[in-house]
Amino acid sequence: MQNFKRRFFYWTVAALLSGVATQSLAQRGLPEEQGWSGYIGLQAVNINTDSQFSTEDDNRVTDSFNSTGSSVSANQLAPLGIVRYTQPQWRTQFYAGLPPQNLSEGEFVFEAGVRQQLPGGTILKAAYVPTPPVSGEAWADPYIINEPRRAVDEERTGFKLGVENLANYGIGIDYRYSDIEINEESSGLWLQQQGAGLGVDDIAALNRNGDFEELKLGVTFPLQRNLFLTPGLRWQSEDTDGAAVANDALRVQLTLFYNTDKHRVSANVFYEQTEHDDIHPVFDQIIDSDGYGSFVTYGYKEPFNWQNVSFDVLGLYSIEDANVTFYDRDLWLLGLGMSYTF
Fold first, then answer.
1. For the segment 193-222, what is each residue's pLDDT rounded down to a tens digit?
2. Which domains does the chain have, with CATH numbers?
């Protein structure tokens, strides 16, 4: 559960870190010319969150299992980008970086892979997916009160397979697998040492190491020449070694994208439910949650007649409401930045 909550937080933040991301909603097919393309961007963001699973220093100590942790505010600069090389004779494109599609769907997931366009317009893709750089930490044991918690590395490496613009109908399907490995996983050991009654089986039920799977489906509808609507579904599963933290999550979302010569606007709303497999030994119940939120991006293209440059403004509010307060989360974000496409 702890892994999922932190991942949900960072993926949602990342969806706002580049206004250029949503260009992918209106772009299909590979470039007709051979060569390099991509984008680079720099965003300054202010993030305010209440979450027990943020590994910021201000949240290292919590005084209760019946709280959402310390309110944390942070200002960050985030460089983003992707580099692509297209070979039009083969209808093949190689790429490495942060795909705009991932950002527009709320996932800060880097990839290195290949896209192959078929004669009918369908694009097949395969990629290696390393650990996202912003979510590479977790608490070794999050269930500690009145003492400092220790941050350790969290690794998630795997692969991704997908189809874009299936049969030229704007349908996209993605499957992703990752191996979850939390170094020095010790969830529940502090409570066991305090004589809280957790046995060997309880500690095993909290083990967050395991397998992660994700399946996404989206369909893009052109409403007008510059206006696109994309409803989507996302299923995620964490098949962890511990049954109490193993979970399945289903998200429904709706994205509206508007693009002209000077302006680019994207608005996204989502709702998500998470269900866990077994009783959590610390809280003596199965932990489930509902999450919802919205984010909006606006890009102003070519300010001062600077070609291929965009100024971006970003905003987000999201909340996750669980049946245990320890897992509640609240997030606000405001960002300003600039991006350059090539």
1. 999 989 999 999 999 999 999 999 999 999
2. 2-341 (2.40.160)
